[in-house]
Amino acid sequence: MKLPRLLLSLLVLATLPAQAAKTYSPGELKLMIPLGNYPAEGPVTRQETHKMSREECLARSDKLSKSASSVSPSVRLVDTPQLRSTKVWGGDGAMLINCPAAGGMELKRSSYR
């Protein structure tokens, strides 16, 4: 009898971190972001770099933020000749898209706290 309880307890404990992550509905995010009320983010959980020209990065960044804007808010944080940086908020985390002058696309994903 104690073994099934122990297994059940371990199973519940193992799933707690996944359940503890904060999530937001698209409606909540669309109300929060324009008011400057940004969700608290944890550390970067995934980082990718893709080789491409700056022009291709800018086009892909625009396409991604436009396609996501129907569901989630996005904001262009920086737009200079050296760097374009766009942030897109989703239900379970945010993504930062960087297009540096040297080319390439940098994607950084972080979950909410």
Major sheet characteristics: 5 strands, antiparallel
N-to-C order of helices and strands: HHEHEEEE
Helix content: 25-40%
CATH architecture: 2-Layer Sandwich
Intertermini distance: 37 Å
Q: How many helical elements?
A: 3
Instruction: Report the sheet-strand fraction.
Output: 25-35%
Number of strands: 5
* Broad shape: globular
Low-confidence stretches: 1-18
CATH domain fold name:
Double Stranded RNA Binding Domain
Please state the average pLDDT score: 85
Q: Strand order of the main beta sheet, please?
A: 1-5-4-3-2
CATH class: Alpha Beta
| Whole-angstrom Rg | 18 Å
Q: How many structural domains?
A: 1
Category from helices, strands and their pairing: alpha+beta
In short:
With 113 residues, the protein is an alpha+beta fold.
